């Protein structure tokens, strides 16, 4: 039972070790043009996932205040611009 508890606690490190071992055994999966397509996966999908996860971790109070500030800044810029000159 202690081993199972330890594995649940250290699941991230176990996953990293397994990923490194898998890459060592079969490196052709992650090369450019391979099945994982790292030129697309890392460039677009990984970056989008990181920003999405960081957006989910924002407090709702912070997000609400920023959503309110954006239209105010846009309206003040629009109203004070040189549209009618």
From TrEMBL:
GO cellular component: plasma membrane
UniProt signal peptide: none
InterPro entries linked to this entry: Na+/solute_symporter_sf (IPR038770), Put_Na-Bile_cotransptr (IPR016833)
Family affiliation: Belongs to the bile acid:sodium symporter (BASS) (TC 2.A.28) family.
UniProt-recorded name of the protein: Sodium/bile acid cotransporter 7 isoform X3
Gene symbol of the encoding locus: SLC10A7
């Amino acid at each position: 039972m202690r081993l199972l508890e330890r594995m649940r606690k250290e699941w991230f490190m176990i996953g990293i070790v397994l990923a490194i071992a898998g890459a060592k055994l079969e490196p052709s999966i992650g090369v450019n043009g391979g099945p994982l397509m790292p030129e697309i996966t890392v460039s677009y999908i990984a970056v989008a996932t990181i920003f999405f996860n960081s957006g989910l971790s924002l407090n709702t109070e912070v997000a609400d205040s920023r959503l309110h500030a954006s239209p105010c800044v846009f309206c003040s810029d629009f109203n004070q611009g040189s549209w009618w000159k």
